[in-house]
Amino acid sequence: MIRVLLNRNLEFTDDQLVEVGLVARGGQRCIYDRIRGRLVWPIRDTSGDVVGFGARKLYDDDEGPKYLNTPETPLYKKSKVLYGLDLAREAIRKARKAVLVEGYFDVIGLHQAGVANAVAVCGTALTPEHVELLSRCDCREVTVLFD
Questions:
Q1: pTM of the model
Q2: Rounded to whole angstroms, how far apart are CA atoms 125 and 113?
Q3: Contacts 24+ apart (CB under 8 A), 41-46
Q4: Cα–Cα distance measured from residue 55 to residue 37, given in angstroms and rounded to the nearest whole number
Q5: Band of residue 65 on the pLDDT scale cut at 50, 70, 90
Q6: What does the longest C-alpha to C-alpha distance in the chain come to?
Q7: Which residues share a beta bridge with 24?
Q8: What are the φ/ψ torsions at residue 89 (nearest 5 degrees)?
């Protein structure tokens, strides 16, 4: 049993932590932290419930990809989640517009600059499910700002 420190101590089994992608198996009994040495933030659904995690390596000379999401699970499907939509939903509804960006830090920076209707794809593709999520917010116009 591994103890994960969040707002309070919760206990999860190794299998549960593997299933949500926070750890991986290195052998039959060995598990390791997949996102060690990275800055980690939650990915939330439209209700604000955490469904996955995004992580960025801290140093360019570290091994592995620059960004690493938890893998797809029954709760987290990147084609059906827009990062920041839980926070941007009301601003999108009021303006009837959204700003769609490529990355988590783009959303965070835009929100800090007062662009409250910014959201990001959790990958590289805009899907019909993403468009449906925006349309549920009464979004009529999307400005795409990909790198």
A1: 0.84
A2: 25
A3: 41/104, 43/69, 43/70, 43/76, 43/81, 43/83, 43/122, 44/85, 44/86, 45/75, 45/81, 45/86, 46/85, 46/86, 46/89, 46/133, 46/136
A4: 9
A5: confident
A6: 52
A7: 32
A8: -50, -50
